[in-house]
Amino acid sequence: MNLLKNTGTLYIVPTPIGNLLDITYRAIEILQEVNLIACENIKHTNILLQHFNIKNILISFNKNNEIQKNNILVKELQNGKKIALVSNAGTPVINDPGYLLIKQCHLFNIKVIPLPGPCAAITALSASGISTNRFCYEGFLPSKKKTRCNLLHSLKKEERTMIFYETKYRIIETIKDIINEIGQNRHIVIAREITKKWEVIYGNKASLILPWIKEDKNRFNKGENVIIIDGYKELKNINISDKIINTFTILRKILSLKESVFITSKIHKISKNNLYQYVIKKIK
Ligand code: SAM
């Protein structure tokens, strides 16, 4: 029920990010019931509507025309119209146009009703195996290398889990920059083509993500990606005595880094992870 007299309602309607079954019953109902649908790409949204046998009026609303369209849509809403906002995929406004329209709706006391639904960032995060208690969403990294590296550098000590969107064109360069600016040992998860046929979610330390991407050319030629980076972890104040370092150094001469850390940690009864991080920091 619309509690605000004489004004319409703007519905924020998420749509599938691949698998059409991910649309909600409520989204279908709203897309049927509203007076018009503001969409990023009419052709794209028409395919969705046809699939669900929905007939409605579509109006183009994208990053190139949103400023002009805001006033038109606000007028329609003030005249009591119900409008659904959709983007090409996922939750509108999340790296898609719309927040300025919503801001105007708030200013003019027009009701805004968000529907829950698909969003690549949150779907990827839920399957990342990385802590979700605190996270930040960074959207697309800058396309210019220097700006991208500066931003990544500024995030080196970010403790929250970080979520990025990345295109197939830049995925290799971006992972290289993450290795250089954040570190080769930071845990990263790549969520590709979520909900689609070739969906894959792969996690490993940054230096091993790069060969994984390169081993299959589809991974850098095709598809959509979300990158999730584990937050910065302060090295615990552990007591790494000379005795421990001696053991490690001797073992390291004949064993791999992983094996040396493992055996040293067993001999001295200390945390394997803490020792690993300490050793990596010293080596770097
Ligand atoms: N509004 C959308 C949302 O809610 O996720 C995001 C739109 S943004 C313009 C498009 C980017 O989202 C893609 O470049 C990719 O990084 C990410 N993305 C969208 N669909 C995806 C999918 N199925 N798998 C992985 N990433 C996806």
From TrEMBL:
Subcellular location: Cytoplasm
Gene Ontology CC: cytoplasm
Cited Pfam families: TP_methylase
Major enzyme class: transferase
Domain Tetrapyrrole methylase, first and last residues per copy: 9-203
Molecular function as annotated in GO: rRNA (cytosine-2'-O-)-methyltransferase activity
Catalytic activity: cytidine(1402) in 16S rRNA + S-adenosyl-L-methionine = 2'-O-methylcytidine(1402) in 16S rRNA + S-adenosyl-L-homocysteine + H(+)
Principal place of residence: cytoplasm
Gene3D superfamilies documented for this protein: Cobalt-precorrin-4 Transmethylase, Domain 1, Methyltransferase, Cobalt-precorrin-4 Transmethylase, Domain 2
HAMAP family tied to this protein: 16SrRNA_methyltr_I
Described function: Catalyzes the 2'-O-methylation of the ribose of cytidine 1402 (C1402) in 16S rRNA.
Name of the protein in its database record: Ribosomal RNA small subunit methyltransferase I
Organism the protein comes from: Buchnera aphidicola (Aphis aurantii)
GN (gene name): rsmI
